[in-house]
Amino acid sequence: GKICLYPMFPENRRLERRMDIIEFINEHYQSNQVIDFSPYEKQNLFLEGTGAMVIDHNARVAYAVCSNRCNDQLFFEYCQQLSYRPVLFNATDKNEVNVYHTNVIMGIGNDYVIISDEMIRDKEQRERVLSQLKHSGKEIISVSEEQIEQYCGNVLELNGHNTKYLAISTTAFEALTPQQIQTLSKYVTLLPLDVTAIEQAGGSIRCMLAGIHLPRRKQAIEPN
């Protein structure tokens, strides 16, 4: 029942914290607390929500890559307040540049995880992350750094009435191997969406969507 407001590194993204959105959520979903981390911006400490963290809600585990968008102490505080097990690690690209958002290299579904574990260069950290994922019951679908460059990790599982879908860009879908598609199809219906314009700016499907994990309020049924 908690809503979190996050401290954002880019100043223009701070404008996305809008009271009308919070009021809409409170009207339609059951929430009992707003936790505001945004004052940490004044200390230049940042934790950019579900970009900086990839959360396994079922297993109550939060994964995060160390970066200037994810302060480690804020991450641990978040996990303590929301009762998640923290898994913090480092990841870099082939040029040894730190991955700035965890959802670039990792997407968690109900039964599987898409992850570029090769980008976790430290062997001990990589084994710790993979061990936690296996312990949480996830089938691990490893993707290469080249596939990450095609946004294969930037995906989001959606719940339909009787079907689970994987929202994925057409760019990412076309970069998957037949074996990866076959494995994913055991769990979800793949839903490729053309977001080429968004990808030209450096983001993809997951950057456009946010999950709401609150129970709906019971609305009064209006008579016809």
Descriptive notes:
There is one protein chain. This protein is of the alpha/beta class. 29% of the residues lie in helices and 21% in strands. The strands form 4 sheets. The chain has a 3-stranded mixed beta sheet with strand order 3-4-5, with helices on both faces. A 3-stranded mixed beta sheet has the order 6-7-8, sandwiched between helices. Strands 9-10-11 form a 3-stranded mixed beta sheet. The longest helix has 13 residues. It is globular and about 45 Å long. The C terminus is likely disordered.
Mean pLDDT: 94
Envelope shape: globular
Sheet bearing the most strands, described? Answer: 3 strands, mixed
Helical residues, percent: 25-40%
- Strand order in the sheet with the most strands: 3-4-5
Radius of gyration, in Å, reads: 18 Å
* Total DSSP helices: 9
Q: Unreliable stretches, pLDDT < 50, 5 or more residues? A: 220-224
Task: State which percent range the strand residues make up.
Answer: 15-25%
| Helix and strand element order | EHEHEEHEEEHEHEEHHEHH
Number of strands: 11
* Alpha-beta content class: alpha/beta
Ends apart, CA distance between termini: 32 Å
Offer a concise description of the structure.
With 224 residues, this protein is of the alpha/beta class. It contains nine helices and eleven strands.
Task: Supply the key terms.
29% helix, single chain, alpha/beta, globular, disordered C terminus, 224 residues, three-stranded mixed beta sheet, 9 helices
